């Protein structure tokens, strides 16, 4: 495994090793004149694509082209060998073009992939549930469109007042999958900061102002915000153009849809958001979710909500634990991102 700062296996050290391999390949071709030897230059080139950043890979591609030139001048190859060498040059030029094309981010191959994975992990880290009293079960689950690791739906959560007050927000950025992933990353960081710094009634207006200031082409999002006192179970729910939260009363086993009104984030200046007050008694459960859980083409959203709540009732016979993951895996549109947060008072 190659680790940061591991001497010769990093940066210039890798380049030196690959250059040595290319030199040995050229020397063998000049010595034996074997038709298959020129293709051995593709080995170091492939390793370079995987291990080197754009700057070093571009330089190595040029060296491979020069090595082929040396082989042609000194080896005097026949026509068949020239065709083989020409294929190597074309591939090296293709790698060089990809390096120059990737200059805006400066990375390629494995390094670029690791950066994207890190971005995804940062989004997921925003939704980690803080440590809570044993009488509370809070779970979240995300599932992206088409199984992509990037999504426009995300969850942020934090506690305040020495752990007594839990605040969470479930957000759906415009777009889906990778197209919305970068906006979701930026917005999740901003919302994570706002959630812990502002009073509950200030959160959605501040998030709305933030989105308006960004002036993105697709600069809108929906969100539902929950603030709950973990001592007595009293809560406040506010919504910004988002599907309504759903509350299950343990005593009756019935669901109540909490329709808090408010405009979508990022469209209207000085927007105001209504609040729904309630209290989670022992055994009660609250669900926050994105539209991917309940919306499908040619189906009314209320029917989707009923279908989701029906699925919950069929699953709750086992246990509430793990319900969020089970629900996102079995309910909703596979062509849209899905996010869900479950808050259960044991």
Automatic annotation (TrEMBL):
TM region(s), chain numbering: 37-52, 57-74, 80-100
Keyword NAD: no
InterPro entries recorded: Bact_Sigma-Reg, PPM-type-like_dom_sf, PPM-type_phosphatase-like_dom
All residue ranges annotated as the PPM-type phosphatase domain in the record: 124-345
Chain coiled-coil ranges: none
Keywords per UniProt: Hydrolase, Membrane, Transmembrane, Transmembrane helix
Domain of life: Bacteria
PANTHER family with a match to the protein in the record: STAGE II SPORULATION PROTEIN E (PTHR43156:SF2), STAGE II SPORULATION PROTEIN E-RELATED (PTHR43156)
Name under which the protein is recorded: PPM-type phosphatase domain-containing protein
